[in-house]
Amino acid sequence: MQGASHMLLEEPLRLASVLAPAKPKVFPSLTKIVGTLGPKSHSVEVIQECLTAGMSVARFDFSWMDAEYHQETLDNLRKAAQNVKKLCPVMLDTLGPEIQVHNSTGGPIELKVGNHVTITPDINKALSAEILPIKFGDLAKDVKKGDTLFMGQYLFTGSETTSVWLEVVDTSGENVNCLVKNTATLAGPIFTLHASQVHISLPTLSEYDKQVISTWGSRNNVDIISLSHTRSAEDVKELKSFLQSHDLPETQIYAKIENSEGLDHFDEILKEADGIIISRGDLGIDLPPENVFMFQKTAIHKCNLEGKPVIVTRVVDSMIDNLRPTRAEATDVANAVLDGTDGILLGAETLRGLYPVDAVSTVGRICAEAETVYNQPLQFKKVMWHVGDPMPHEESVASAAVGSAIKVKAAAIVVFTFSGRAARLVSKYRPTMPVLAVIFPREGSDPSMWRSYGTTQARQCFAVRGVYPLMGSTDEAETGGLTKEEYGIKLALNYGRSVGIVKPFDRVIIFEKIGDSSVVKIIECEG
């Protein structure tokens, strides 16, 4: 059928499965879930439930609360992860060039449509329905008449009345005079100001961000930094240099695309970053609503071809206050999976939402169902075509491993890797089964140094679609005298059996490097 979708859908079969009772999942979805930890997900108990429900990555948003609070949360995360015997990567989300309005009283401010309000850098002035003081002195230089500004505690979700839309009327010195375009009540201690399609003359990596990374980030050896409001490849390069100078060379950088500048320079950013986060909150404000879906699909497609993880945000906002998502939200999650996303990021849903654990489990179930109709053969062909001929050796073997796994209906692909790169390469070809990545130390490496390095590489794999890392060892006390291959296979299969991936007589693909060569083999599990 011409114009076919990215699904593999045999209608009678799929309709029957929709009507049948849902089968309990014995393993999480291949699509990863990033949970933002905060007031409603701060305790060891709730974090533990989130991990059990399918949360793979823990995000710490430094646009609010202080390092002490986040440290308490991280300490609780470590306890929870230890309790459930799981690794969980830490993602530090930067503040970036964000303009904030501080409401010292915390009282509500009502703005009415048709009224005028002045935004001023004079922070000595009291916040009111007529005056909005900000901590930025150059807004009047950056904006012009007719520009659109948005302000609110959480910015527009499309359903709330706590964000206001302003139109710039004129500027007067350092002040910006605006017309209120909708009635709204601003509430909370901090409001965020977003200037739509305007370059704000603030650095992407703020001094506050540098302070947080060099202290909290360095002390906790964070695995991933989400660089908010990434606008160019230079932003990523600057952060890389900063990480190198602060003893964080292994920390990955995920560029968070949330404005038109980032969109304009997307290809260059993608080459430089380790991963991409499509931040649809601010992006949905910066772009006309009818254009957001096209950028999402295009960006995911480009990330998939390059084999770089991509994560989508703002999917089930209604679950902040409700136990179930809307029908449109559920479909939106599924469509992101069908587009090829590696992960779904939950922000307010887990940070301040009433049902953080249910948000994780619900999104996980939707992802798992969507994966059953994901068009893997089409994606496989697209990546093969993009890589081209002659294929690099590693690409050839990774694609062969996935192709073989599909043909023999393997239960899993086991990858032996030092850095996680081989596992990410296998994931690029979107296997329909989990990839169990056994992270081994390099020959001759210092065991004590490698334990820290290897754990970081393993945790980072949790952000990649379908990859589930395991810490391997070459210590004879742990391997029991087995060869590296025998030990790695035993470790992976034991884990696979424990979580219900591998059953007796299942076939498993083994992908490993031996010297300068890569080898793919098929084994059958014992009965």
Beta fraction: 15-25%
Percent in helix: 25-40%
Here the CATH topology of the largest domain equals: TIM Barrel
Oligomer: single chain
- In this structure, how is the largest beta sheet organized? 8 strands, parallel, barrel
Uncertain spans, ≥5 residues at pLDDT below 50? Answer: 1-5
In the residues, how many domains can be counted? 3
- The shape is elongated
Query: For the record, what CATH class of the largest domain applies?
Result: Alpha Beta
**CATH architecture level-2 label of the largest domain:** Alpha-Beta Barrel
Beta-strand segment tally:
22
Per DSSP, the total helix count is 19
The SS-based structural class is alpha/beta
What would you say this structure looks like, in words?
The chain is α/β, with parallel strands linked by helices and 527 residues long. The protein folds into three domains: 25-97 and 203-373, TIM Barrel (Alpha-Beta Barrel); 99-196, Beta Barrel (M1 Pyruvate Kinase, Domain 3), CATH 2.40.33; 376-525, 3-Layer(aba) Sandwich (Pyruvate Kinase, Chain: A, domain 1). Helices cover 39% and strands 22% of the residues. It has 19 helices and 22 strands. The strands form four sheets. It has an eight-stranded parallel beta barrel, surrounded by eight helices. A seven-stranded mixed sheet has the order 4-12-8-9-10-6-7. Helix 6 (233-245) runs parallel beside helix 8 (266-272) and helix 11 (327-339) packs across helix 13. It is elongated. The chain starts with 10 loop residues before the first helix and ends with a strand. The relative contact order is 0.11. The model is unreliable at 1-5 (pLDDT under 50).
